[in-house]
Input
Amino acid sequence: MKTFRFEIVSPDLHETYDEVSFLDVPSHDGRMSVLAGHQPTVCLLEDGVVHVRAADGEKRMAIRGGVLSIDRALVSLLSRQARIVAAAGTGRPVPEAVP
Output
């Protein structure tokens, strides 16, 4: 399965994932899914939950708005606030991380 590199950056969080197969974000125009080879795009994001499917499991992160940049080699998400809301690979909530 093809993968891509994804990074999420905010004042609260900076995470990089090297082998992401699926990304789902709350865009300004509705939910947007990203797979490897996606057309280069820049879009505005709304408050909501980001779903990441990486080699080491699935993760969920709550964000407060932002911008998503999709390039051939890297997908970057910049947000005013971001927090991990589900533990890697378990799907269990992380209580101290919920905004």
